[in-house]
Amino acid sequence: MFTMGIDIGSSSSKVVILEDGLNIIAAEVIQIGTGSTGPKRVLDEALSKSGLKLQDMAKIIATGYGRSSVEESHKQISEISCQAKGVFFLVPSAKTIIDIGGQDVKAIKLDSKGCVKQFFMNDKCAAGTGRFLDVMSRVLEVSLNEMAEYDSRATEPATVSSTCTVFAESEVISQLANGVAKENIIAGVHQSVASKACGLAYRCGVEEDIVMCGGVAKDLGVVRAISKELKKPVIVAPNPQTTAALGAAIFAFDEVIGANK
Amino acid sequence: MSRIETIISELSSISNNPKKAMEDYKKETGKGAVGVMPYYAPEEIIHAAGLLPVGIWGGQKSISKARAFLPPFACSIMQSVMEMQLEGVYDNLEAILFPVPCDTLKCLSQKWKGTSPVIVFTHPQNRKLEAANKFLAEEYRLVREKLERILDVKITDEALTKSIDIYNENRKVMREFVDIAAAYPQIIDPIKRHAIIKARSFMEKSKHTAMVKELNSELKSLPVEDFTGKRVVLTGIMAEPNEVLEILKENGFAVVADDLAQESRQFRNDVPLGPDPLYRLAKWWQEFDGCSLATDAKKSRGPMLIDTVKSSKADAVVVCMMKFCDPEEFDYPIYYRQFEEAGIKSLFIEIDLETTSFEQTKTRVQSFSEML
Ligand SMILES: Nc1ncnc2c1ncn2[C@@H]1O[C@H](COP(=O)(O)OP(=O)(O)O)[C@@H](O)[C@H]1O
Ligand code: SF4
Ligand SMILES: [Mg+2]
Prior knowledge:
The structure holds two protein chains of two kinds. Chain A is of the alpha/beta class. In chain A, the strands form two sheets. A five-stranded mixed beta sheet of chain A has the order 3-2-1-4-5. A five-stranded mixed beta sheet of chain A has the order 8-7-6-9-10, sandwiched between helices. Chain A folds into two domains: about 1-90 and about 240-260, ATPase, nucleotide binding domain (Nucleotidyltransferase, domain 5), CATH 3.30.420; about 95-235, ATPase, nucleotide binding domain (Nucleotidyltransferase, domain 5, 2-Layer Sandwich), CATH 3.30.420. Chain A is built from eight helices and ten strands. Chain B has a domain at about 30-160: Rossmann fold, CATH 3.40.50. Chain B starts with a helix and ends with a helix. Iron/sulfur cluster (SF4) binds near residues 38, 77, 104, 293 and 322 of chain B. Chain A: Its cofactor is [4Fe-4S] cluster.
């Protein structure tokens, strides 16, 4: 039996197809999110790669910022519940989840059964989010994929504000103008992202294991900075951008099973 | 329309249109209105003068002109109050009563941009001392004098005592309403509840009392139905705009009690008995606890909220954090920890009167309902 989770975020669209609640048949990402062609494209891609049809899905659950606009779905569940579900499936020892997506940062606390005990989200400001990294990557002319590598060569991280993206951008531009090495600026950018995320994690209460997910978890520079700030190891969820979609597919499976009982 | 629906719709339209409420009052009585800034001004003095006290609570608004006068991190409600001042919204008020229990209000009181005369007074923060009570009674005496001068009326002790009685009666009826409403969430949804309570900011209190009293008895005559949603207590300055309450409703939440400065904090205590009406009004402030604006070395807000959760059989607390309100932000970590210790779940949402996008609030509320 197949179920599908669709996670339409602010910055990317993700689909996971799950077989019998256990095997991941497809996990696709398109790096554009709600309101774009991303949702349709990622759906087509997941289906064509798996050789399955929409009708093969016993249940489809949508999540993410654009969850209510997914016509194919039978139900929608918030991304906080879905992240928790997906991450716990992959890392059953997870107690604290840090999810950094395109425009939000979330800290989620789990109990030993993987249920959400508490969560905190950032306010509307884009500081500390994926968008913040996107802006910095453009200003610095360093691609997102290269950010971690630059960071690892830093000798003296620069100071980058964590309160406002616009302000931080002009800070970075003036540091560039003053000849500060990109490596050091990028390490500063990562620290700034980390301080925002850790602020939320502290509110939640930090308990190990700590797992990171969301697109920004692919930037190991951020992961290192968070680990350094929390003074604790941080696990990156496998395929971290698709964990919420996975969680949605698991929820869909659980519902089908429950309905069959 | 049933009597219940009629009363709710009348109160809702008053709460949505304070301007019309003022005009109607003028038509009926020939008398004007006096603005009441938050928080905890002795409205009874205005009432005793025969004028209509009108609460000033800002409104849902995009902010532009106010930017020239306020720092970007001034709280959302005062941004909107400033914007409305600059638009002349408050200029038809005969006077404005302006307490200054937080820094933002203290600064704002010194730069009122409207044309109405402003009467500023101070709530003492060493509240539990007898001297503080005397000081505040003296402040209120000055408020009364200034009002008498501006309005050209005499405010007697007798009139004041009568007004206090009218207000205490309203407080009692409002406390009853809050309890009754909790039993009928199918009828009194979060939006209606808020409107019924907010209407008291724009109505002559005995009139409001009469309507709510009738509503209470109509409600009580109905059978109590099972409620399958979740029951929450709101805390904070206020829970506006309505979109926020709408999201709570959509996700199956009922508001069974509150600790909002705009709502229950105003009527959970009566003005105590005593011979001197001004001293009595001042004593209210001395006895009042559990509010970020009233210094409280014992920090009793958390325990009080925990009691409210228990007595109202609530499932959780929703923290309605006014954006950039420092007193409320300072209180939060203290009562949050007390909640954690007591095993009480809470949700943090941001109240921003300027915003038109509620996706974040939706995600938080939906996640919370899935979590409970
Ligand atoms: N290869 C990558 N390396 C580093 N960061 C990445 C990479 N791909 C995406 N990101 C970051 O992930 C963010 C999107 O995260 P995602 O969890 O997909 O967001 P959402 O769920 O809000 O749409 C982007 O803004 C970008 O900064
Ligand atoms: S108490 Fe908070 S919301 Fe109210 S005026 Fe002061 S800072 Fe603003
Ligand atoms: Mg996401």
